[in-house]
Every structure is written in C-alpha cells, then in structure tokens.
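User: structure tokens for this one?
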Amino acid sequence: MGFLDSVKKSAAKTKKQSEIVLLDREIASIQRAFGVTLYDLLAGAVYSGHATPALLKKQPEVASAFDKFAKEIRTHEAEKEAKIKEIEICDVKKDTRLPATNAKEKLGNFSKYLGDTTQSTKLRADVVMLGRSIKQKKEAFGVDIFDQVVLSSDNTNTAGWRQAMTSAVNKQIASAIDKAKQNVSVPMSKKETKTREIALLDQE
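Assistant:
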C-alpha cells in the first residue's frame, strides 16, 4: 500500500470512528429517556398500592436494579418535597407579616424580608438540583437495564412476563419497551455497519 493510500485509509477509519462516537451518544440518549419512562411506570405501580408489575416479578435482575435506584430516588424526592414546603412557608411569612407602625419595625420587617427571600432563593436552587439528580438516577437505571429488557435475544426472557400482563400498567411498560427497541434499532444498525467497515479497512 502506497503512502497516499495509507493516508486515505487512516482518514476513512477516523471518520467512521467519529461517526460511531455520535451513534453511541444517540444510543445512550435513548437509553436514558427509556430509564425515565420505565422507572416512572414501575414506581407509579409499586408505590400506589397496585399489583407488582409483571416485569419485576419475572426478571429478578431488573427488580434488584429498580430497588437500588428507587432507594436513592425516593430519598431525593423526600428531600425535594421538604424543601418545597419550606419555600411555601417562606412565601407565606413574606405575604402575611404584620405592617410596621414605626421606623424600627419597618427596618426589622425589611431585614426579615431579605432573610426569607435569600432562604427561599437557596431552597429553590436546591429543589432544581435535586430534580436534576432524580432525573439522572432514572436515566442511569435505564442505561443499567436497557440491554436485558430491550435488547435481549432470549425470547423467553420477555415472553414470560408479557404473557402475564393484563393490567394497563403492564401494557404501558410493554409499549415503552417496544418503542425503545424501535428507536434504538436504527443507530445500532448503523453502528454495526460502521464497525464492520472499520474491520474491513484493517484487513486491507
């Protein structure tokens, strides 16, 4: 192989590797979105007193992952709710404070108003951060179980719980899985093609 051919081959390989990086990002984005959807469906059923979703009954590994992430998420959700209540208290205090009757009371009220406003601003920032953390953990759950739930080639792996689905939530879960599988099929197929093309270039 001549020098020019070697340069062209290297450039082609680099281009395909860059395309694979972009495809990996697209796949990861689909996995994260799936995690949010699936977690919300599972948690909605589990913590509302409904029957345990069939997916958790039939796939212990998924149930174990759900329990692990749920503990962290529910802790953050409780912290978020507590801070929201604190914000409401701060807002009520600002709106219901008795009017001042002299300069000293005016100064005191203004000082308290500033304190409540500062506290409320900090609490609102905490709520945003907790909300972001909750979403990230749901996304991580999706990445963790995606291959097993969506991409498993073992038909019995999904058939068992799909046969057991009669409730609306089980059907919603099945629909979410089917949608994720459809969404990820295109970038995964493209990635496989690019990977094969790189392998062929290496053989030249």
